[in-house]
Amino acid sequence: MILVTGGLGFIGSHTCTRLHESGYDYVIVDNLYNSDISVLDAIEKTTGARPKFYNADVCDPSALEVIFRENEIEGIIHFAGYKAVGESVALPLKYYRNNINSTLALCEAMDKFGAQSIVFSSSATVYGEKNPVPYKEDMPADSAANPYGRTKIVCENILRDYQAANPDKKVTLLRYFNPIGAHPGGLLGEDPAGIPDNLFPYILRVAAGKLERLNVFGNDYDTPDGTGVRDYIHIMDLARAHTAALEHLKKSGGFNIYNVGTGKGTSVLEIVKAMSETIGRPLEYVFAPRRPGDIATSYANVDKAREVLGFTAEYGIEKMCEDGWNYARKHFNL
Ligand code: WQD
Q1: Which pLDDT score, from 0 to 100, does residue 313 have?
Q2: How far apart are the first and last CA of the chain?
Q3: Which of 59, 113, 145, 171 is the Cys-Cys partner for 101 at CB 3.0 to 4.6 Å?
Q4: Position 193 confidence tier, pLDDT thresholds 50, 70, 90
Q5: Pocket lining for ligand 1, CB < 6 angstroms
Q6: pTM of the model as a whole
Q7: Ligand 1 atom with minimal separation from the 293 CA
Q8: Which residues contact 91 (CB under 8 A, 6 or more apart)?
Q9: How much of the chain is in helix, strand and coil states, percent to nearest 5?
C-alpha cells in the first residue's frame, strides 16, 4: 500500500490517477489546507475507484499512527507541503514548521511501522541562482532564493541523513521543474484559491475571461525573447515519473535524486502563443516589471531519469495547453 500525502493537491491527485492505472493500492492523507474534498470525487470519476481518504495533518504523529495501524503502508509519496514562494517570504516560520515537521513525522512513522520507501516532492528551486543550466542532480543544491525553496533543501538533507543512518530504507527525491496542464479527462487540474501566483493557472483564468490580461513579469531577461524561460512538463508526465520511481524501488534502494522535466526551456511569450493557438484567439497580456526572486532561465538535464528510471517526458507545450484549456472550460462552465 502507498501512502500519498497531499493526495488531493494538483500533483498529488494526478499522481493518484497514475497509481490506479499502474495497479498500485494507495491511500490519501490530506488536511484540505490548500485543496478541496471535491477532488476526491474527481479522482473517483476519473479512475472509477474511490480512494481511501484520511482528512488529517501529516505533522500529527497520532494521526499517522492511525493510518499506519489501519493500513499496510510499504511506501510513501510525500506531496503535502506549503508551496507558495511569495507567501513563504512573508511567513517563513509557517513554512519551516509545516514542511519540515511533516517530513520528520513521516520518517519517524517509517521507523515505527516499518515502511520501506519514501518518494519526496522536491523542486528545481533548490538549484538556486548560481548553477549553470541545464541543472544536473550532482550540482550544489544549497542556495534557494526563498524560504519555500530552503525548506525543500532542509527536507532533502533530513532524508539524505535518515537514509544514511538506515541503509535498509529507500529514499528518492524528485526535483520537479514546472508542472502544468491537466488530466485529459478534464475533471482534475490546477485552480488555486485566490489570484494564482503561477503562470499557467493565471493564463487559464485570462483565457476563461476571469482575469483581464496576463502581466508578463519582465521582458528584458537575457533570453531569446526577453521573457523568463522555464522547463514546463505535462502534469501527467510528472505523475508517470512517480510510478517509474516506485517501479525502480522494487529492485533497488539507497538514496537517489532525479530531475523531472523535459530538458527543454520555453519562454512566457511562447506559452502565451501556444495558449492563444489553443483557444483560437490572442491571449491578452502586458509587459510588467520583473518579479523579485525570479531567475531568467531554468531547465533540467534529464539524462539520469532516462538512464536509471527509463523515464522521458512525452508531451509537448501544445498538449499541455490543450489539456489545461479542456479542464478550464469544464471547471469554469464555459
Ligand atoms: C514561471 C514564469 C515568471 C506568473 C515556482 C516555484 C516552483 C514551483 C513552480 C512549487 C516566470 C512568469 C508568472 C505571472 C509571469 N512551485 N510569470 N506572470 O516561479 O518558475 O516556479 O512555481 O513547487 O518551486 O519556484 O513558476 O509559474 O510562478 O513562473 O510572467 O503572472 O512565468 O516570471 O518566468 P516559477 P511560475
Answers
A1: 98
A2: 39
A3: 59
A4: confident
A5: 83, 85, 123, 125, 178, 197-199, 202, 214-217, 228, 230, 268, 291, 294
A6: 0.97
A7: 19
A8: none
A9: 40, 15, 40
Q: How many CB atoms lie within 10 A of CB 289?
A: 10
Q: What is the pLDDT of residues 293-318, one digit of tens each?
A: 899 999 999 999 999 999 999 999 99
Distance of CA 93 to the CA centre of its chain: 22
Residues 6+ apart with CB under 8 A from 258: 137, 172, 173, 174, 175, 241, 245, 304, 305, 308, 309, 311
Q: How far is the CA of 333 from the centre of ligand 1 (A)?
A: 26
Catalytic-residue membership of 258 = no
| pLDDT of 3 over the 90 cut | yes
Q: How far is ligand 1, taken at its centre, from the CA of residue 289, in Å?
A: 14
The alpha carbon of 199 and the centre of ligand 1 are apart by a number of angstroms equal to: 6
Residue 292 pLDDT level (bands cut at 50, 70, 90): confident
Contact 135, 259 (CB under 8 A): yes
